[in-house]
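User: structure tokens for this one?
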Amino acid sequence: MASDKQPQRVNVSAIQCPSAVTDCSNGPFRQLMKPPITLVAAVLVIGCTTSNPQGAVTSPTAMVSSNAAQPSPSGSSNPSSTPSPSDLQLGTVDGTCQLPVVTLTQNLANNSATYVGGFVSFTEPPAVLAPVFRPDSSGVIRARWDYADLATDTMPILYGNPQSGTHAPSYDASLRRWIPAAASQLTPDHTRYAYASGNDQTTIHVVDVAQGTEAQFAVATHGPLAGTPQVTDFDGSSVFFLVNVAGNDGTDIWRLDLASATAIKLAPMPGVMMVRGGYAWVGRTDPRDPSPPTAPFPEQKFNSIVRVDLGSGAETIWYYRPGTEVWIGGLSPTGSPIVNVASGPQFHSPGEIRQVVQPGEQGMLIYSGGLGFAGPHVDVIDLSPAARSFDRFWFGNGLGLYLYTQSGGMRKVFDIPSSLSANGGIFPAGDCR
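Assistant:
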């Protein structure tokens, strides 16, 4: 149902970055220009500054650790309370390709976390050369606890925070840069990415990958915030981000128009899982279910996934499974959701992973077995709807890399060797080409 309320919007003028400024990307410590915010949805474009986010926000190290160990968005799973699921047998990859990946090493003793980007090469036939991880010297990305973000070692320094998808850094093949943000946070041409930070107000950072410079947009979003704002989509002209305000019921969906410097509050709604391509994907509890999933407040569990058209407000029940908890693990490039399904009564790691192309269908079974994964990253060789059998779904976790194809099913294709320091896991970071 469409809302009767008009979206809130405020236009402000941009503060341009002088052409004489040449050190926008230098140094780990950046100074934030903080003007007074007097309007409800005021936006300040802070030009070409590269300042640190202010205020206490969730550590990116804690975030990636949680996502690797607990695939359920409710965060209530307890892996130690149930038997560990069996790992899949090691299989092969059809054809030859090179997969960009990132490994994560965490050291809780000194509060450090380091991603290392590199490549795993698959050959045909595989017996000629077993796949090995080859680190890229330019692929080191470190967590900065004091600023709750990530930073590259390679100059110009790129700052960011993976806030969707695999919740791990990605690889920009066109510019050959490792990005401290998820692939869904990049523009379609991969020249820029966006991420959010904030405490009392939200700051959206738009980063130029080649130059290492960033523009900042400060948005007054009715703080204080409950958790870090999340960028969920960036189409090149607008940044879509999610804000949870303390004390409010539901998640606020905002769109930042870069050309006009206008922040528009589109809609508040509970259970928002993802926003992409003009649609919000939200979790709902379908009243038809005699035994819906439950959780203690403030956790939420849902038995259905609904797609909401952000333009018209029209809702479509995309997937409903009574007696289970369902959530979206990702979206394919064609826009179809990858749905995780967990059975009761405890609703631990997903018992099933399905691709649901059409509303109302049960979808294509990708995996059933109980292992938790980050991902997927989906390679689409042919974007026509009839060619979904050509999709390759890449998953990662603390055990290795996994591949699903319709012809070959789900199999493990890379085992993390004991010599590789990656106690936080290994994750796909781009297309295997």
